[in-house]
Amino acid sequence: MLFLLLGMVGLVLKYLGIGPVATLSWWYVLAPFGLAVLWWAWADKTGYTKRKEVEKMDARKKQRIEKQREAMGMLPKKRK
Questions:
Q1: What mean pLDDT value characterizes the chain?
Q2: How many of the other CB atoms lie within 10 Å of CB of 21?
Q3: If DSSP codes are grouped into helix, strand and coil, which group holds residue 17?
Q4: Taking the CA atoms of the chain, what radius of gyration do you get in angstroms?
Q5: CB 14 within 8 Å of CB 26
Q6: How confident is the model at residue 76 (pLDDT cuts 50, 70, 90)?
Q7: CB 52 within 8 A of CB 23
Q8: Could you report the per-residue pLDDT of 36-60, keeping only the tens digit for each?
Q9: How far is CA 67 from the centre of its chain?
Q10: Per-residue burial over 36-53, b = 16 or more CB atoms within 10 Å of its CB, e = otherwise
Q11: Phi, psi angle pair for 77, to nearest 5°
């Protein structure tokens, strides 16, 4: 997402001719979009995206269970 944001800012600055970005080659301005594609390909190939999704779902599940236990008056046991 960071690469996309950086690419969009660079694209707007280049198009409007603002600052030092106006003098850069289009290859430098469009490079963050290529990096974003490479990042997504790597993340999908290695399972990074799915792993983060599962971690997020597990955290939600744990939070929901703790909330239900608290509502029923079943506080977590303390370790001795």
A1: 90
A2: 17
A3: coil
A4: 23
A5: yes
A6: low
A7: no
A8: 999 999 998 999 888 989 999 999 9
A9: 27
A10: beebeeeeeeeeeeeeee
A11: -70, 140
